[in-house]
Amino acid sequence: MATTEISWTAIVEEELADLAFAELPATMKLPALPVAVTEFMQKSKQPDTSLKELAAIVESDSGLTLELLRHVNSSAVGLRHRASSVQQALALLGQRQATIFMVTTGMQAAVRARQSKLIHQGCFWNACMQKALFSKEVAKLLGADQDMAFAGGLLQDFLLPVITNDHFDDYVQYVETRNTQPQLLTDYERRQFGWDHALAGACLANRWHLPEELVCGVLMHHRGLHMLVDARLRRTSVTAVAIASLLPDQLRQNFTGLEQLVLLQQKWPAFDLDAIVNRVDELHRESGLPIKNDFPLARRCRSAIERQHEICDGILKMNVASA
Description:
mainly alpha
């Protein structure tokens, strides 16, 4: 099913019907988007807004200006011409990609402004970038929107540094018991709070009027491989994000996530985990973004991939011996 045939508005309304934003704890100190991002989002929806006006909004924030020019001129974007001004950068990207860039960069800035007692910000954003690039590679295989998959992969866990601060003791308990009582982080959160970080993140993203497909990516990322049998969404960016969520991260949100990806490789010939993992590390090096890949994905996934190779070699030897 093509993405254009899906009513993302209807899905968001249906999925968030049971959780109003006001029902989240009043004590939760939620981040706020930078003013320039909010203004850009509002202005970009007005049909008579000029590129010059949008550029002026971006230029009012020096940090966004620097990141936009760095992004557009990086080898990862692959544009033929280099941009020397914000207006040129926006023209080269196009409004849709520029909007996604502003959203992802603005949300990173909002979360980074808050220090977390439990989550190391560098490790966190490193894992988020890996999930974003992995999600984009999976979207290629699905024929889904790669830009939206990247954004969803990057932002699926964006509220965790904030929530883990506000509920520090609860998350410490999760971390301390995950080896003896492996469980999904979202299952634990629902038992403790009545909601999880995916629902909270989607509610906030929806309140910020972010693209509804991106809201769905945040909302459903913890559903993992189950998304592949969802008749409506299995060939969309939302499924790519959900598959990427199985990658290892600092909190080990899905204790068996990596093993599930290994099993997926056995069922889906086009899904070459080893190749995708190495491609992600390569793209990360070329991205030009200020997110260091101090823990390459190949290193994180090495043990599971090596076990898979050993199993395959063992099966091959058994087949040869019995021939």
